[in-house]
Design a protein that fits this description.
The complex is a heterodimer of chains A (334) and B (307).
Chain A: H1 2-29, H2 33-39, H3 45-54, H4 61-73, H5 87-122, H6 127-141, H7 144-158, H8 181-187, H9 191-228, H10 231-238, H11 243-281, H12 286-295, H13 299-327, H14 329-333
Helix pairs in contact in A: 1-13, 5-6, 5-9, 5-11, 5-13, 6-9, 7-9, 7-11, 8-9, 9-11, 10-11, 11-12, 11-13, 12-13
Chain B: H1 22-35, H2 37-54, H3 56-59, H4 96-132, H5 134-148, H6 152-163, H7 167-194, H8 197-204, H9 209-245, H10 258-265, H11 274-301
């Protein structure tokens, strides 16, 4: 298992290097070059020259790349042109929002999707099965912003059950330690602050989680249907094992393999979807930061946000691979 | 961006056995498509979408840029439905229905161009990788891995930011996101074909590699690619809407775009929510049409579903 982990970690290096080269090239391709892109409207010939010198843009390209790489490693991503704050600070306050939202969406998608897919498969042809097949087909074609608008309109604007925007009511005046608002409330024992943050998460999480939910239902259903007819399930039944044991040890464990891969693939979709969901719900996270940095041509922040999401995506994929190794011992040998 | 379900566990949407003639499989698939209600519905939606896009000036009741109802616009709201304007008007007094109908043009254009562009580049790269193997294969596939290691929408955003705000950059950005998907698919499909008996037979009668690849392996590998292309049309339409929703689309709003209409309607959600839902529904119907068609095509071509 350790060799498997190490091998997978080593495979990360070329991907991260490639990523840094892509971003490095991207900064150089921006309209006006990196200096005026980083400075935005504050660009004057003197300032551009100063940035060019400070960032070594007057040096050979490989020297530039090397210094770019060392700056990234030291988390020096420049300053935001919108408010002059260091990009790293901006990301530190926004990042937990996206993580909270993504985790909430994932809990919704997995928590509802796997049981739904399982029971649809066990009662194949029944009403629940039909509903889940049709629902999952529609679910995959609905753009995330449609759901976001629909939920926001019905439950926030019309019914007023849940807040339409933001991460927490500013009037709560809650203490923030980690910037994970739900966790902060628990740590500081301000449980009403946690509850308020959860209420702000519900609608965006459902909007974001529905497409992955649809896909997870489909894959779980197909996968369980495939496993149900295997010989070892019949053997387990013949041995007289209880349904619960067969379900846990034989059905689910084998049926979960494709589901885990799917969940991993969905995380990319979740991160992309988070950009749109956060924009609709004015939910302060990386996605909303991306939206506002596009509008304000704040390339320093945009670069940082892209970097963070890309690294997160790569790390998640690695985790899924490792999890796959835990679930299916055959993978480790390959 | 691309949903995982489009590619099944084997990495190819619909595996093929290479032991039958290509013509027979397609006509058989077409016969089964005609009996599938899902396919009929999908085809009907796609036909309606294409018809509206092509004949928008004839179908639409008004000029999409004419601010006919400007006098009725109140701050923070937009004119509701009235005779001659079944869906009302937008915040600038322009007929909503006509703008929606014209919007089909941009969506179809972006969908088709970015899919075809991504498809052609992807097919060339995937074909090269599949035909040559070795170093060529390795380099092409690592680049694809890298592109696929970033969420698609993010790639599309970064590319459109470089290229500047325009419809062309949206098309190019989405095409680039689609390239690695097609490249991988064709390569995988070709590798699966390579071990088949008919390739061995062709080689043993002394055919050149180029002939074998171009006239035997590629045609037999195209099925999954065509299925994927149909599904990609749907995702491209959604992605294009997402990009223009984020403010990266065409800055000129005389050519209505669904994503942009949606983004404009955001501020009116409490007064005229319908303005946000119309473009959404249009996007869903267009995407649903291609998805239904793609899914039923996959089933029709897949030997597993022959019963």
């Amino acid at each position: 298992m350790l060799r498997f982990v190490v091998r997978r970690l080593l495979q990360l290096i070329p991907i991260l290097l490639g990523l840094s080269i892509l971003l490095f090239a991207w900064l150089r391709l921006l309209p006006g070059g990196p200096a005026s892109a980083l400075l935005g409207e504050r660009a004057t010939p003197e300032r551009i020259a100063a940035i060019n010198h400070a960032y070594g843009l007057d040096q050979p390209i490989w020297v530039q790349y090397w210094s770019y790489l060392t700056r990234i490693v030291r988390f020096d991503l420049g300053d935001s042109i919108q408010n002059g704050r260091p990009v790293t600070d901006v990301l530190r306050t926004q990042f937990p929002g996206t993580i909270e939202l993504t985790i909430a969406a994932l809990i919704f998608a997995v928590g509802v999707g796997i049981p739904l897919g399982y029971f649809a498969a066990r009662r194949q042809g029944g009403p629940l099965d039909g509903l889940s097949v049709v629902g999952s087909l529609i679910g995959v074609t609905i753009p995330v912003f449609f759901l976001a608008f629909l939920l926001k309109y019905v439950f926030a604007v019309k019914l007023g059950w849940l807040p339409p925007s933001g991460r927490q009511d500013v009037r709560m005046n809650a203490t923030h330690i980690t910037n994970f608002f739900v966790l902060d409330g628990i740590l500081t024992r301000e449980y009403d602050a946690s509850w308020d943050a959860i209420k702000h998460l519900i609608l965006p999480a459902i909007a974001l989680g529905t497409i992955p939910l649809a896909i997870i239902v489909r894959i779980t259903r197909a996968s369980v249907l495939e496993v149900v007819n295997e010989d070892y399930v019949r053997t387990a039944e013949a041995k007289g094992l209880t349904t619960a044991v067969i379900r846990r040890r034989h059905l689910l464990r084998n049926a979960m393999l494709p589901v885990v891969t799917t969940i991993g693939l969905q995380l990319g979709l979740l991160l992309s979807g988070a950009i749109l969901t956060e924009t609709v719900f004015a939910f302060p996270g990386i996605g909303q930061e991306i939206y506002s940095s596009i509008l304000n041509k704040d390339y320093a922040v945009l670069q940082g946000a892209i970097l963070v999401i890309a690294i997160l995506y790569v790390v998640i994929n690695l985790t899924v691979d490792l999890l796959y190794g835990v679930l299916d011992p055959r993978v480790r040998v390959r | 961006m691309t949903t995982a379900t489009q590619v099944d566990a084997a990495g190819t949407p619909g595996a093929f056995s290479g032991d039958e003639s290509a013509g027979g499989r397609w006509s058989e698939a077409f016969r089964r498509l005609r009996r599938n209600p899902m396919a009929i519905l999908g085809a009907a939606l796609v036909l309606a979408f294409v018809f509206i896009a092509v004949f928008a000036p004839l179908v639409a009741g008004h000029d999409p840029n004419d601010q006919i109802l400007l006098g009725e616009v109140r701050p923070g709201s937009a004119p509701g439905p009235r005779p001659g304007f079944p869906l009302g008007a937008d915040q600038l007094g322009r007929d909503e229905l006509s703008r929606l109908l014209y919007g089909a043009r941009q969506s179809l254009l972006v969908g088709v161009v970015s899919t075809l562009l991504g498809l052609s580049v992807g097919l060339i790269l995937g074909g090269l990788a599949g035909a040559f193997g070795g170093k060529v294969d390795n380099v092409i596939m690592r680049v694809c891995d890298l592109l696929l290691s970033i969420p698609g929408l993010l790639t599309a955003i970064t590319i459109s930011v470089i290229l500047g705000q325009s419809l062309t950059s949206v098309m190019i950005a989405i095409a680039i996101v689609n390239v690695p998907i097609f490249a991988r698919l064709l390569r995988g499909s070709m590798l699966a074909q390579r071990g088949n008996d008919y390739v061995l037979a062709a080689r043993s009668i002394g055919l050149r590699r180029r002939t074998i690849v171009l006239s035997h392996v590629v045609p037999n590998s195209l099925g999954p690619v065509i299925v994927q292309a149909t599904l990609t049309l749907a995702t491209s339409i959604i992605d294009a809407a997402a990009l223009s929703f984020l403010g990266l689309g065409n800055p000129d709003d005389t050519r209505p775009e669904w994503g942009q209409m949606l983004s404009d309607a955001q501020n009116l959600l409490s007064t005229r929510a319908a303005l946000a839902f119309y473009p959404c529904i249009a996007i869903v119907l267009a995407a649903l049409g291609f998805t239904l068609l793609g899914e039923s095509l996959r089933e029709a071509l897949d030997p597993k579903f022959r019963r």
